[in-house]
Amino acid sequence: MSSVRSGDSSSADLTARAKIRNAALAHFAREGFQKANLRAISADAGVSVGLIFHHFGNKEGLLRACDEYVLSAQTRRARTAGRPAGAGMHDLHREYLSDPEEYRLQAQYMARAIQEDTPAAITFVNAMVAESEDVFRAGAADGTMRPSSDPRALAALSILISQAVLTLPPPLARFLGHEQFGPDVLRRLTVPMLELYTHGLYTDDTLLKAAQDAWNDARPPQPDKD
């Protein structure tokens, strides 16, 4: 995985700092935060290990820089997705198609942070869920979205779904006729996913009411209040 194709550049002319950060993103996402090796990162970035220490201080400083970069990108995308009249979705598709590898790499990085429960994981989750919750509440208020009984839980679920799609395992991609996740797989999944969001799945609320009744029946009795 080449660092030159990642990050904030449309060409190979990246600063040394950006090259290091982008190479680190790939290693952290692929190998995990503990196993990633600074020598391997420096080799992929085409710089010396000493330059990593010069720019980032240590491995933890490099990790923080990657966290901040990914969080900024993911928060911006969440805000873009919430723009009205589908404009945001068009912009996100264009951004994804301009560099699918980078887009997916950042999703893998965030998924790795959450999976390993790193210090950044709670920041990622809090920021992304809060941003999505704001979008859902605003949509319910202006009539573009149906109100939810639990907007925060819905926001967490939406983040889970988007992460699952962008980090789709190879067996599921192969089931759809492709060796790995890419633009063709995303194109295949987008419309059915939006059909589900827009029209729903069931034709009546029988299952919803049954689930609500089951959870209510399973709830421990509440003590009487005097």
Automatic annotation (TrEMBL):
Residues 37-56 bind DNA. Keywords: DNA-binding. Residues 14-74 form the HTH tetR-type domain. This is TetR family transcriptional regulator. It comes from Nonomuraea purpurea.
